[in-house]
Amino acid sequence: MRPAITVAESRDLDKKTIEEIGIPSLVLMERAALGIYHDMINNPDLDLTKTLVLVGSGNNGGDALVVARLLYTHDYDVSIALVGDPDHASEDHVAQLKVCRYYDIPEVDANSDFSGYTTIVDGLFGSGLAREVEGEYKDIIDKANAAKASIHAIDIPSGLNGDTGKPLGTAIKAASTSTIAYEKVGMTEPESWDYTGKIFVDDIGIYRGNKSEN
Ligand SMILES: NC(=O)C1=CN([C@@H]2O[C@H](COP(=O)(O)OP(=O)(O)OC[C@H]3O[C@@H](n4cnc5c(N)ncnc54)[C@H](O)[C@@H]3O)[C@@H](O)[C@H]2O)[C@@H](O)CC1
Ligand SMILES: [K+]
């Protein structure tokens, strides 16, 4: 059986790795994004001619900003769309946005037309999804799903409950998902595969026990 963890376990393991073991959160974020970037560029099913990166205000959005920066510094055509209240952005998100702005990575309005993109990266919500998706977020998720672009999700398709594998209101329908450290238990439910698409698991230095046990 594939090893999988609950959303709460995922948050606890992140916290333990950062606060107790001492790997800085920005190091974990960089490793996560490097894994996701490599999953994307080596995936023949993704056309990276023109990529839009959807960025939420938490650390899932922080991962997305690093993916955007890696694509940009490797000469891919990439734009960022920030979603949500910048005043509530996480510390690591703020740090990564500053780096993206140093490079002048193009930013577009999330309410703009998504029809010109070949790939959309979903960095709206990860393990921090706390309630039903509504309003602006719902509209953006539905618009991304309706676009012709293939979607690559970061950690878990936004809107999908990682424990049940069911959408909370609405959820991204990804062609592929790079999940961080371990699959989330909901992603082992066959009904979630309509949302996750092909799953990649990226090791970023977070282990739930002795590494040799996993
Ligand atoms: N430093 C870390 O702890 C690491 C975190 N990682 C990434 O960080 C993610 C978790 O980040 P966060 O805990 O910041 O959470 P998220 O980025 O998943 O989302 C948090 C934000 O979304 C808001 N939110 C939740 N549900 C909502 C809803 N239905 N409608 C509107 N807003 C809603 C929350 O209030 C919060 O502002 C992981 O999925 C992973 O992608 C990775 O970078 C690995 C290391
Ligand atoms: K996501």
**If helices are DSSP runs of H or I spanning 4 or more residues, what is the number of helices?**
6
- Enumerate the strands of the largest sheet in spatial order, edge to edge or round the barrel: 3-2-4-5-6-8
Identify the CATH homologous superfamily: YjeF N-terminal domain
SSE string, helices as H and strands as E: EHHEHEHEHEEEHE
Q: Roughly what fraction of the amino acids lie in strands?
A: 15-25%
Distance between the termini: 12 Å
Largest sheet: 6 strands, parallel
Pfam families: YjeF_N (PF03853)
Organism: Lentilactobacillus curieae
Enzyme class: isomerase
Cofactor: K(+)
Features:
single chain, 214 residues, alpha/beta, Rossmann fold, 6-stranded parallel sheet, two-stranded parallel ribbon, 6 helices, 8 strands, 35% helix, 16% strand, globular, binds ligand NAX, binds potassium ion
